[in-house]
Amino acid sequence: MNKAVLVCRAVFPDIVDRLREHFEVETNESDVVWSRDELIAHLQGKVGVFITGTQPIDAALLEACPELKAACSMAVGYNNIDVPACTARRVLVSNAPDVLTETTADFGFALMMAAARRIAESEHFLRRGEWTKWSVEGFAGSDVHGATLGILGMGRIGQAIARRGALGFGMQVIYHNRSRLTAATEAELGARYVGKEDLLRESDHVVIVVPYSVASHHLVGAPELALMKPTATLTNIARGGIVDDAALARALRDKRIAAAGLDVFEGEPALHPALLTVPNVVLTPHIASASLPTRRAMANLAVDNLIAALGAGPNKGRPPTPLNPEVLA
């Protein structure tokens, strides 16, 4: 009998068929969001699992699913996975870096521009039938070209956003990161390293692209928002919980900052209710990587990892993007 694997969410059928060439596959065609207990129940007898960025894989789940040998995610972020616990149990973990970088950077820049130019706010005004005349100051926002772009987190996506800002819009790019880039990379990006507080004070537009961790929880809260210019915007395409959404809603309500663009939320898909009451925020449902080519590339990479990690296919034993390759030894 073939090894059995689980696909936790509805995924492109032709990509799932690639798994069926090697394994018995259980899918979730109805795309139900399983509870933790339901996920554990579905994992019984499975040696591999295809996950997204939300299914929790931790020590307790691994204890309840002793046959599991590989957990392969189509997301780039993996804060839902306890990698050390997986390593201790010899469970291979993989994610999907690189394939979503440019698409996510496109979206982050679009979200920043929508917040700066008050696009969502003005569209709602128009749809309500309130547009009766043109006015000089009507929905006047802030410029993007020539402005100062502050990037919190300068990994692949942060660097892609920096290129768009510097080369496409003539922006002055500053950044803060756990580790500073090389001088050559800074020169290529036209980016200047600054401390976090200086970045918040100087930026006209702040974009957050740091990974989520305990250390980055509420990295931007009330004290940080208080440092920003009242004309500035904040865009979060990283992970929910990095921004204190309650503090941000208050800052938006009080016009402490001009606007925000949010694709991720603390406790999503639930939103802090105050975010729905302020007009100067653009809200999207975690879709920064949602172009069809990119989502297919993400799913294909997760399948490549799962097939190889479980000893099948042309790359057996050599998954392309392992997070804990030491378990393969």
Describe this structure in words.
It is a single chain. This protein has 329 residues and is an alpha/beta fold. The protein folds into two domains: 4-99 and 292-328, Rossmann fold, CATH 3.40.50.720; 101-283, 3-Layer(aba) Sandwich (Rossmann fold), CATH 3.40.50. The protein has twelve helices and twelve strands. The strands form two sheets. It has a seven-stranded parallel β-sheet with strand order 8-7-6-9-10-11-12, with helices on both faces. A five-stranded parallel β-sheet has the order 2-1-3-4-5. Helix 4 (83-88) links the parallel strand 4 (70-73) and strand 5. Helix 1 (13-20) runs parallel beside helix 12 and helix 5 (101-116) packs across helix 7. The longest helix is centred in the C-terminal third of the chain and has 18 residues, at 292-309. It is globular. The relative contact order is 0.14. The mean pLDDT is 96.
Give a short summary of the structure.
This protein is α/β, with parallel strands linked by helices. It has twelve helices and twelve strands.
Total domain modules: 2
Number of strands: 12
Number of helices: 12
Q: Give the structural class.
A: alpha/beta
* Sheet with the most strands: spatial strand order: 8-7-6-9-10-11-12
Name of the CATH architecture of the largest domain: 3-Layer(aba) Sandwich
Note the main sheet. 7 strands, parallel
Strand content: 5-15%
Mean pLDDT: 96
Q: What is the string of helix and strand elements? A: EHEHEHEHEHHEHEHEHEHEHEEH
Helix content: 25-40%
CA distance, first residue to last residue: 26 Å
**CATH H level, superfamily name of the largest domain:** NAD(P)-binding Rossmann-like Domain
Poorly predicted parts: none
In the CATH hierarchy, the third-tier topology of the largest domain is known as Rossmann fold
Please state the CA-atom Rg, rounded to the nearest Å.
22 Å
CATH class of the largest domain: Alpha Beta
Shape call: globular
